[in-house]
Structure formats: C-alpha cells, structure tokens
Design brief:
single chain; alpha/beta; seven-stranded mixed beta sheet; four-stranded antiparallel beta sheet; 15% strand
C-alpha cells in the first residue's frame, strides 16, 4: 500500500476545512446509520461472523442472484488482495493510470506485470488477468457497457477483474451481476464504502463464479469484516437507504465544476463521467498547489503525481456542494494569478 491515496487529511490535523481529495462527497446524510449503530454498539462485545453470510444473503436478494455468487470483503481493497493471492504467479495486465493497489497486490503475490505495453502483451503467458477500473480512478472515464461485455465474452480464456467501486457515481450503464452469471472468467468488485460514503467502516463485495468465490473464502483470514461494518451493511441494504441527494443533480454540479475549472488559464481537465475529475496545471506542480490551498484556505486536493503514467502537474478533485465548489474555483484562480 502506498502512502499517497486520497483523503490524507489525517496528515494536517485540524487545518482541513473542505476535502476535495477523496472521491466521496462530504455531505452524505449518515444520520440514520449513526443512530442505528449507536443503538447497536453492544455488538462489539462479541466476535463477528467469521464470514458475513447474512449480509451476503441480503445483497444476493437485492441483486437477484444466488448468495454463493457474493463474497463480502473489508472494502474493495481486501477483494483486490484476495484475488491477487488466488492467482499467485499469473500474469496481470493493468492499464494505466489507475488505482495503485492492483499493482501492489499483484507484486506481493509474484505476478508478471504489464501496464498494457503492446510488446509485453505479445510475450505474456496465457495465464493472465486483466484489471480494469470502471469508472476509472483517477480519470472518471467510463468504458461503454457493450464494449466491456464484448471483451469479457470474446476473451473467455482470460480472467477479468473489473472494479466497479464508483458505479453509483455515474449515469453510464455498468455490468449487472445477474446478466453476467454465465461469464465464469469475470469477477466484479463493488464498494459499499463508496456507495454509502462510509470509508472508515471498510465494506465491499465481489460477485462472480461461486467456484472462484469459494476458493477465495478458503484463503482469507476469519473476522476480516468487523461487527460494526456488518451491522451497518445490514441496516443500509435492508432499509434501502439513500445517503446521497439526487444523483443527476450531483453530477450536474460536478459537470459545472469541471467546466469552470477547465475555463481557467493554466488548467486542462480530462473528460469525466463521474463526480471526480483529473486536472493538469501547466505551471508549478500539483504539490505546490496542494500546499498553497491548505495554507490559505484549508482546502485539500489530491496530488495525483504518484499515479503511474502521470506527472507532478496532475491533481484530482471531486465535486462537493455548490458553495464549496465555488470556493475551490476562486482559490485556484487566485493561485494562478499569483504564479
């Protein structure tokens, strides 16, 4: 794991007033969940289920698939490391830029890595995994569902690991577990952490072939998902809780933020289909901009220079409220004028 993920507010004490560094909105309504967990704090006196089977059953019912096709994990990250461990020694193709944990997990378990170099692809062994982040982190780009479906079904001799952690932050169509049950070469990673804005609880799940998921169960340590996380998951899924306002309105605000930032001199932004976006500053560095924003406004952005394939002029932000977004726009404009 690298010490450079988003939301590193813990490094700055009480200096951070607005956090644009995480890909999650800071205004999610978690009041119902907090009240529920307060009433259920006694669960910490007992061990959790060795596996979160009750939550898996609830998710399976919501997805209309068998419970054996669902494996709950301690966030998407545990899912990534379990999959890399199961396919230890295979080749892994990881198009860049993307989430660093795919490569970190694969290196831990002796994978032969390719970052999608065509020459490498031609000499890789046939036993290979393809890791795709869709929607992509850090760019916010979404691959079209028909294209992804076609690739998975046509290249059935490869294993595809598709991380859909941000599937709730786009209006673009995503792969649906029920529609993909016949694809035994596909593992889909989902993030309840992202969907419900609960990164501190670490909760995710994998959908895929029950044969593969059964093997993953035998690899994992017991009690990786703690009692409060399981309790939260059951409450959120069982009550069909929505913690975010209207998705379309939120994405419209994200599009406005993208347009306003892209209109500033010295900035260029990649197109995004999500609430977060990747920007390039033409003078200075992302690190300098980050430190200036913290010092003058208590604003935290994501220095994206440690993503493979990006340089020290790249940074990422996610949309927050309109008032907070306007403050970010004004602050960056002031920084650019001072360059």
């Amino acid at each position: 794991m690298i010490f450079g993920h988003g939301d590193d507010a813990y490094r700055y004490g009480d200096k951070i007033k607005i956090n644009f560094s995480s890909n999650l909105p800071g205004f999610a309504d978690l009041s119902g969940l907090k009240a529920h967990l307060t009433d259920r704090l006694d669960v910490i006196k007992s061990y959790p289920e060795p596996e979160a089977m009750e939550l898996e059953t609830m998710l399976a019912q919501e997805l209309d698939i068998p419970a054996s096709n669902v494996l709950v994990t301690a966030g998407a990250t545990e899912a990534i490391y379990l999959i890399a461990q199961f396919y230890k020694g295979w080749a892994s193709v990881i198009p860049q830029p993307t989430f660093a944990e795919y490569a970190d997990a694969c290196m831990m378990f002796d994978h032969m890595l390719s970052f999608h170099n065509q020459d490498e692809l031609e000499i890789l062994p046939e036993r290979r995994l393809y890791w795709l982040c869709n929607p992509s982190n850090p760019t916010g780009h979404v691959m079209l569902k028909p294209l992804v479906n076609h690739i998975v079904r046509e290249q059935h001799h490869y294993i595809f690991v598709i991380d859909q952690s941000y599937e709730d932050y786009t209006t673009k169509a995503m792969l649906v577990p029920k529609e993909m049950q016949d694809c035994h070469n596909l593992l889909l990673i989902h993030s309840m952490t992202k969907k419900y804005c609960i990164p501190g609880l670490r909760l995710g799940y994998i959908t895929g072939s029950p044969v593969i998921l059964d093997r993953l169960r035998h690899l994992r340590q017991p009690w990786t998902v703690n009692s409060l996380a399981i309790e939260a998951g059951k409450y959120l899924v069982g009550n069909h809780v929505e913690v975010l306002p209207d998705r379309q309105q939120y994405l419209e605000e994200a599009a406005r933020l993208h347009q306003e930032l892209n209109s500033l001199p010295e900035l260029m932004l990649m197109d995004s289909n999500t609430n977060f976006m990747l920007a390039y500053i033409e003078r200075g560095t992302a690190s300098q901009l980050k430190q200036w924003l913290i010092r003058h406004y208590g604003i935290l952005i994501r220095d994206a220079s440690n993503f493979r394939g990006l340089d020290n002029m790249c940074f990422r932000v996610s949309a927050q409220t309109k008032e907070e977004d306007d403050l970010l726009i004004a602050a960056i404009k002031e920084y650019i004028l001072d360059l």
